[in-house]
Amino acid sequence: MITLTSRLSRLDEEHAGINSDPRNDTVCVDTCLLVAHPDEILRRGHCAVLKEELMSASVHEARSYEEFLAALRQRIFDLIVFHQSFFVPDIKLPCGRFALIATEPTIEAYVFARSKGALAYLSENASPSLLQQMLRLSPGAFLIGPLIASWLQDYMAQRLFLTLDVSRLTPREQEIFDLYWRGANHQAIAQQLCIAESTVRSHLSHINENLSLNRNQATALSKQLSREKQER
């Protein structure tokens, strides 16, 4: 399996081979990484993790959008990790050689990262191990961290709810679905409606069928309901 790390290591070996030949006076160009983030502490942290994984790499930093664009104009980078505040829809980046870092994820940034061949879409507080995992992805793979995954699940559940046609449900199913949406569990619904929990489960199964929800969609919706209940 050829990962980004192995591709970059191969570049380093090629550069080292050039410089090791005394008959060749070509100046070695290190593997170049660019880390762009407005927060100095987070930027330096990301740089340190990547530098530890790719020891011979030359790591460049950009503190602002202007510095980020200037760096992209000045050289070709083997890997670009940048904060989504520097993201614009028409920016051109090398497919499979960039990752997007988010403070607060947005669907626009996620779609851009996914469609333009990003390595990853991660929280700016992603663990060092997650950043290292990003470097070991096989070609075409896409990594999202747990925080981004949770946000995406919530987003999809909300969008899914807005498209549901509850008029297709019977009056009793609508009653159960309303209680379920407000965060009531099976036991609470059964007690409030004076029915058995098995009946509640049966109704919810029919609701999923009537609303054309597959297992994954129903699970996402259920987790969203549970999370909203905890926040109330």
Task: Explain this structure.
Helix 4 links the parallel strand 4 (98-102) and strand 5 (120-123). Residues 14-29 have low confidence and may be disordered. This protein has helices at 4-20, 40-53, 65-74, 107-115, 128-135, 146-162, 171-181, 186-193, 197-210, 215-231, and strands at residues 32-36, 58-62, 79-83, 98-102, 120-123, 143-144. 54% of the residues lie in helices and 11% in strands. It has 2 domains: 4-145, Rossmann fold; 164-231, Arc Repressor Mutant, subunit A, CATH 1.10.10. It has a 6-stranded parallel sheet, with helices on both faces. The protein is α/β, with parallel strands linked by helices and 232 residues long.
How would you summarize the topology of this molecule?
Blueprint: H1 4-20, E1 32-36, H2 40-53, E2 58-62, H3 65-74, E3 79-83, E4 98-102, H4 107-115, E5 120-123, H5 128-135, E6 143-144, H6 146-162, H7 171-181, H8 186-193, H9 197-210, H10 215-231
Helix pairs in contact: 2-5, 6-10, 7-9, 8-9
